[in-house]
Design a protein that fits this description.
The complex is a heterotrimer of chains A (about 80), B (about 375) and C (about 325).
Chain A (H helix, E strand, L loop, with lengths): L4 E9 L2 E6 L2 E6 L11 E5 L2 E5 L2 H17 L4
Antiparallel strand pairs in A: 1-2, 1-4, 2-3, 4-5
Chain B lengths: L9 H15 L4 E5 L2 H9 L10 E5 L4 H4 L2 H11 L4 E6 L12 H6 L3 E5 L4 H8 L4 E8 L4 H14 L4 E7 L2 H9 L8 E4 L1 H7 L5 H7 L3 E4 L3 H16 L5 E4 L10 H10 E8 L3 E10 L8 H4 L10 H4 L3 H5 L31 H7 L3
Parallel strand pairs in B: 1-2, 1-7, 3-4, 3-5, 5-6, 7-8, 8-9
Antiparallel strand pairs in B: 10-11
Helix pairs in contact in B: 1-11, 7-12, 8-10
Chain C lengths: L12 H15 L2 H4 L14 E8 L5 E2 L2 E2 H14 L3 E13 L4 H18 L2 E10 L7 E11 L13 E4 L5 H10 L4 E3 L9 H9 L6 E3 L5 H13 L3 E4 L7 H10 L13 E4 L1 H12 L8 E6 L7 E4 L5 E3 L13
């Protein structure tokens, strides 16, 4: 179970924040996040932001995936 | 969508699948995805169609609706029949069959059962219905349980009198331990749940990894995430090197989400819990701590959960399907007496259920 | 505020007043003005199509439309999918005691507007009022008669036929769903509920040899495609990447775990056209302002297995099954 999608923090209002995905805004609880900031991408599950998305790691992962896809990684 | 579309490129997916197929080189592999959202994603993106037939992806006990016990559901239905009662639940629970009916069926007969998309919506609901007893049927794994904990904390702070919570929350690492110690299980690796791991962290699986010595990798839910996870598992099998890997580093930290776990720990305590098909698993359920027992619906209404009578009595093989011992189509009822329209067992109910996803996406 | 009472359905003077003030004034035409028990219609050449549909949508007013507009569009589109030009409609209301007059007037108004735009005459009707709680505010039944311009059956479908859709899918169903579930979301999502006869007519006028049409309403494209595959015997293939979906629909369906291809439409049509004419048909469609995003989304396969395949955007392939139940938001 555990459908969650990445959304971007637009406004922080106490324990809640307005978050957006393309053409969609929702209000979610952000009490599980440490130091949420406007512009952060967060993972939203059932009305609760459960974690911030680490941009650098996302980028690295993508590069890593493509490396495997292109040539496979050395065994 | 950012962080979604990048991980769905068909060119990269096909290339990844080609790598995996080359690497497995005709070796027959059974890899279990524990999380139902993975099961659904694998079908939705059509991943089996690009992977070698030798790689069998089987669905484990990772759909909270599927593993909710008969007695939990029977209790929920009994609650629904009480006077002055409003039940709140996630839509996923509505169609789960129990005792010849379902919550949806009970609603059709007049029970007040309302769907929420977030545990926190229940707070508003209870406040708006001061004269009614509101019970939240809280199901789900570590991903979902923090929402319930936040609801409990808010209810305590606001001194809400008419809200109770019936916790059916369960935790995954304990279930994996139970699975891992089943000798009949023949697996080559685990795809570990991505969003459960966001909360628990990778470290929660150390014991499982030691016990099973199976390559296990935490994966995200986009096709490239899942394929990369499979690649790493296949690689580990080929190298005969058990690994505990994290292919979802953008949100899964080694120690998980500490705040979430602190809140969970503040509200809940782990005790034995009944899983459909798997029986009682030690320490796998989240129940209210003393400070929150005023919210506990199980306590307030004397609800008892007991291990299910063998589901074979029902005639279906859900238990073996959940353990990956039987393929859905091997069950004598699959597609005949048991279909999404009239599900016999829970695996046919939820979109995430192994039987349901199998039924819908038979190629 | 004035509202509907049981007396409005008594058949007496209040009924008369209701019919005159709310309906006659809006649906005004010579057949209705005769106010006989039945409308006497002129003889027509050729074959006729007749269809009926009941509308019970909740909420009755949603972003982009209301139950009245829907009741006209739905029946117009059922006729249009048979290449029939909508001509005469009957409209029957079941009203719940307590419904606001202003609401009824608004709904009747949008029905009249839509009917006029489609060249449809509402020639007969009926109104009943039921006690509070015996219906949900307003139910509407519409029956339509249309003149068939081209006889279509699924037997005309041939392997290699292309499947076109006239724009982004799922908007109507998702906007009704989010209004009904009162989802705590803000989006630009609006129902695209629309009458399609004009579009069908244009394709016919340009001599597009349409083999078959179907408006993918309840159950969305998945249901329509499976029904068609079963009746024509061939398998169909759809390309996920080619299916137009707006950003807000996409975000919402990801968030709620809904399959966009299973979401209801009203204002969308699947066109089965010969391969050789597909590009021309698409050009005609995209020249219509409301169909800018029309697309070629699938094709008919030579195999006679009645299956529907979806080529997924990530390069895989799977069966697109018949939807099982009404889509509901899920968290898992």
């Amino acid at each position: 179970m555990c459908l969650a999608i990445p959304m971007k923090i637009e406004r922080i209002e106490g324990a809640y924040a307005s978050v957006s995905a393309p053409s969609l805004e929702a209000r979610v609880n952000i009490q599980l996040l440490s130091k949420p900031r406007k512009g952060d991408y967060v993972l939203v599950h059932a009305g609760v932001a459960i974690e911030k998305i680490n941009r650098r790691k996302a980028q690295e992962t993508l590069v890593f995936y493509r490396q495997i896809a292109e040539k496979g990684v050395d065994l | 969508m950012k962080y979604v579309d990048d991980f769905r490129s068909s060119v990269d997916c096909l290339a990844l699948a080609k790598r995996i197929n080359a690497l497995c080189a005709g070796r027959a592999l059974k890899i279990m995805e524990v999380c139902g959202t993975h099961t659904a994603a694998i079908r939705r993106f059509g991943l089996p169609s690009i992977l070698s037939e030798k790689i069998r992806l089987i669905s484990g006990p990772g759909c909270p609706v599927c593993v909710t016990s008969d007695s939990y559901l029977a209790n929920a239905l009994a609650l629904a029949r009480r006077k002055n009662m409003t039940l709140a639940t996630y839509a996923d629970m509505l169609r789960v069959p129990a005792a010849g009916t379902s919550l949806e069926g009970a609603r059709g007969l007049g029970a007040d059962i309302r769907v929420v998309t977030s545990a926190l919506d229940v707070l508003k609901m209870a406040k708006a219905l001061p004269a009614r007893q509101v019970v939240f049927l809280a199901v789900g794994f570590e991903t979902t349980a923090p929402g319930t904990a936040l609801l409990a904390k808010a209810a305590k702070k606001e001194g809400l009198k008419n809200l109770r919570i019936y916790s059916g929350h369960k935790t995954i690492p304990q279930a994996l331990m139970a699975l891992g110690s089943d000798k009949g299980l023949k697996l080559d690796g685990f795809i570990l749940p991505g969003h459960v791991s966001v909360i628990t962290g990778l470290s929660a699986y150390k014991e499982v990894s030691r016990l099973t010595r199976l390559p296990s990798v935490v994966c995200g839910f986009e096709p490239m995430d899942i394929l990369t996870g499979i690649y790493r598992i296949v690689e580990a099998v080929v190298l005969k090197k058990p690994i505990l890997g994290n292919a979802y580093e953008r949100v899964v930290r080694p120690q998980g989400n500490a705040r979430a776990r602190r809140i969970l720990n503040e509200v809940f305590v782990s005790r034995d819990s009944v899983w459909r098909g798997l029986g009682v698993i030690p320490g796998s359920g989240l129940f209210f701590r003393h400070g929150y027992s005023f919210l506990d619906a199980a306590l307030a209404f004397g609800l008892k959960e007991s291990a299910d009578k063998k589901s074979a009595a029902l005639g279906c093989l859900c238990a073996d399907v959940l353990k990956g011992k039987t393929a859905p189509a091997r069950c004598p009822y699959f597609g005949r007496a048991c279909s999404p329209l009239s599900p016999k067992g829970p695996c046919m109910v939820s979109r995430e259920g192994s039987c349901r996803t199998h039924f819908e996406c038979r190629v | 505020m004035e509202h509907i009472t049981l007396s409005h359905g008594s058949g007496g003077s209040l009924t008369q007043k209701l019919v005159r003030d709310v309906f006659f004034s809006r649906f005004n035409n010579i057949f209705l003005r005769a106010s006989d028990d039945a409308a006497a219609l002129p003889a027509m050449d050729g074959r006729l199509a007749m269809t009926t549909d009941s509308f019970v949508v909740d909420p009755i007013i949603f972003p982009g439309g209301d139950i009245g507009k829907l009741a006209v569009c739905g029946t117009v589109n059922d006729l249009a999918s048979c290449a029939a030009e909508p001509m005469y409609f009957s409209v029957s209301f079941i009203l719940e005691e307590g419904l606001g007059f202003d609401v009824l007037e608004k709904i009747a108004g949008s029905m009249a507007r839509e009917a006029r735009a489609c060249g449809v005459s509402v020639v007969t009707g009926d109104t009943k009022v039921v006690p509070r709680g015996k219906a949900d505010r307003i139910f509407i039944n519409t029956t339509g008669i249309g003149k068939i311009h081209k006889t279509l059956t699924s037997c005309l479908i041939r392997p290699s036929d292309k499947i076109l859709v006239n724009g982004p899918v799922g908007q109507h169903g998702l906007s009704v769903l989010s209004a009904r579930e009162k989802l705590p979301l803000a989006s630009s999502l609006k129902s695209d509920c629309k009458s399609l006869w004009g579009i069908v007519k244009l394709l016919l006028q340009h001599h597009i040899d349409i083999h078959f049409m179907r408006d993918p309403t309840r159950g969305g494209i998945s249901a329509a495609a499976n029904e068609i595959a079963q009746s024509c015997g061939y398998s169909l293939a759809f390309y996920e990447k080619k299916v137009p979906v707006t950003a807000s629909c996409r975000s919402l369906s990801e968030l709620l775990g809904l399959e966009i291809l299973e979401i209801a439409n009203e204002g969308k049509m699947l066109f089965f056209v010969p391969e050789a004419q597909a590009n021309r048909a698409l050009k005609i469609l995209t020249s219509i302002p409301s169909c800018r995003q029309a697309a070629l989304i699938g094709e008919v396969l030579p195999e006679k297995k009645s299956k529907v395949y979806l080529k997924t955007s990530s390069g895989g392939s799977r069966i697109l099954g018949m939807p099982v139940a009404e889509p509901i938001p899920r968290i898992c």
